[in-house]
Every structure is written in C-alpha cells, then in structure tokens.
Amino acid sequence: MADEIHVGKLIQKFIDRKNFKRTDVARKIGVPNTAIYANERQESLQTRNLIRMSHALKYNFFMDIANLLPREYESSTQLVADKDLLIQQQAEELQKLRWENNLLKELITAKK
Are residues 28 and 60 in the same domain? Predict the structure, then answer.
C-alpha cells in the first residue's frame, strides 16, 4: 500500500533532528543500542514499544502517525470539536432566547 506509515523512519527522523545519540536513547528505554537501529528499520512497532519510546524521548509519535492519516478520518478529537461547536451554538441560541424573553417581559410590564 502506497500510503503506509513507516514508524521506524518517524523515529529515525526525530532522533536525527534532535541530534540524540542512539546509545542515550537506548539507555533511557533500557534496551541495547542495536534495538534502536532495529526499531528504525521496522515499518511498524508494537504499541507498548512506541509508548516507551514516546515517554523516554518525551515526544508523541502517535500524534505524528495520526497527522499522516487522511483528515476525513473520524477521531475522538473530532467528536469533541463537534460537541464543542454544538454547545457553543446552543449557548448562543440560549442567550438570544433569554434576551427575547426579557424583552417580552418588559413589553408586558409596560402595557400594564
């Protein structure tokens, strides 16, 4: 598949961009140096290994992966954004209804 994401290359690019030494990364994760090089060659990694790498390097590789997926894919973030928009619209409508209600009360009071 042409649109597959190579997780190892994401890790390699990050390590190179930050000028980290593989020995330091390996030490943080508690694996031999060769494991870092092996991970960089892997197209995919087990989730727990990527989580360990993310924690050790204080970097969210999962966000990078998510950003490489098509925008039209649904995510919980999108659902939250949709809910937030709906809440905002409802708050605006509520404010308008309160204003109209107060106006009607004033008109009724003025007629008495």
Answer: yes
Residue 17: give its domain's CATH number.
1.10.260.40
Render the burial of 32-69: b for 16+ CB within 10 Å, e for the rest. eeeebeebbeeeebeeebbebbbebbebebeebeeeee
pLDDT on residue 80: 65
- pLDDT tens profile 26-63: 999 999 999 999 999 999 999 999 999 999 999 999 99
- Clarify whether residues 66 and 95 are in a common domain: no
Residue 70 corresponds to which tokens in the numbers above?
Answer: 């098509």
Within 13 Å, how many C-alpha atoms sit on residue 99's CB side? 6
Full residue range of the structural domain in which residue 1 is found:
1-70
Predicted confidence (pLDDT) at residue 78 exceeds the cutoff of 80:
no
Residue 42 to residue 47: CA distance in whole angstroms: 13
